[in-house]
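Lab notebook, bench 4. The sequencing result for the construct came back, and we need a structural model before the next group meeting so we can plan mutations. Quick request posted to the team channel:

Model the 3D structure of this chain.
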Amino acid sequence: MSNNLNWRWILFYLLVAYVRSSSQVSTPASKEYIAAVVEFAPNSIANNSKETIQSNVARYEDLICDASAQNADIIVFPEDGITTYHLPKKSEMDLVSTVIPSARFTPCTQNMDGMTEVLKKISCAAMKNKIYVVINIAERAPCFDNECPKGESLYYNSNVVFDRNGTVIAKYRKQNLYLEPQFNTPKHPEIVTFETDFNVTFGTFICFDILFAVPALNLTRDLGVTDIVYTTAWFSETPFLTAIQTQFGWAFAENVNLLAAGYNDPSAGNSGSGIYHGSNHTNKVKLSYKPTTELIIDIVPKKIHTLKNQENKSTKQHVHVHDELRRKRETTNVNNLKLLRDNITLFKTEVLNSNISSKTLCHHDHCCNFTVKVNKIDTKVKYRLVVYNGTRNYANIRYAGTRVCSIIQCSDDTLESCGSTLDSQTTFQEISISGRFDGSKNSLIMPNTLKTDMLPIMEFSYEEHLHDDHKHISIISSNKMLTNLVTFGVYCRDYDKDLSNAAISNNIAYSFSILMAFLLSRFW
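Done. Here's the predicted structure in token form:
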């Protein structure tokens, strides 16, 4: 009798567990889904890549289980979270890389030569917990191209997506590498999407990709994708490109849901993850000043699929190169979070000493209008109006068209001190900034704000007025008692002005020839 009673209770609990697990899944008819991203501080075991990978994969399995227990439909892990970004030299990349099977392959139940246990374990965790899983991993692929010796391998920085059955449904190879000599760039850019059973189509890209048109804007503007999974190991740079500041600005500009999972190593400048709801100011973010692993879960409203039909207008523009290598890039630490600094010395700037009722500042035909009302000025901290129109240099590997209209903090009267993050008692009653920006498909225009806590200001009004060949952008602060300001303005990427290394070399050679001709004319 007692045995029968026990079995009845067991069956009852199994039924409850089944109903609970079934109810956690968002459906196609649901107006929202539940997302999880991981701010992840990977374990790194010195001189032992195998144990490093095993340790981090085991932690991934626990986090997948935790996210599923909280009814998450999808979980996203950061760039380099499994291997760490301390990778071996290219000749030893076989130690940390894996062959990735094509879509519709289930590593948990199927085998393939060259596929490591990492994919099998993550596949099984996705299957066991009935959750979509996105990881980033070093991919190894055979080389069949004439550009490399036969039998050698190519290595890619890749995202892999598993569905609730542990099946690989998508793979994306990073297009815009940032100081990653171990990895190859795909011969042809990949524009990758995947569909889910809760009727949301996601796009995916990795870290530095966010600042470039391909593939990021191909997803949002060509395909109309409204939800993005983003893996990153971002090195924050003041005053315009810290991690959460950039993630928030990009999601706002494209009005998409962005699930951003960040690598955590504050001493090296890495921290910042979040779930962003597009131009809705409600977001859930995490930034830490010490090594931290945290699961971020949020309910994400589904967006209506809309295609941004923007005419591609070709324009000729004079190029000005913002060479950040003219001086050593300074770094600072804020509560043990290492920060790079942009080079402001080539910007057009003006010190803010008091209220400005109306001020127009221009740099190479790009003009910005400022109105500023200050209640109180902290004499220990300086602020500048800054305007820039040119091409900036990212680590001497990419040359990117950039426009800026902003107010930024400086620690003293020198331009070299700009991008400081000091606590400031200067109180702004109102900031209004406007400017004219390229209105074509070949630009990304983002609100760009930051406070000394390294989080963006999310209370402001932002307006776009589209004209035939340009956009008029306005950003106005909403908080009448704004203190501890680092940055407030608009940051634009002008893709038409991006230059290749070859173009830069040609420009330098041309400038040198002009200089030599001038010198010869003077002395002969």
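The longest helix spans residues 501-523.
Will bring this to the meeting.
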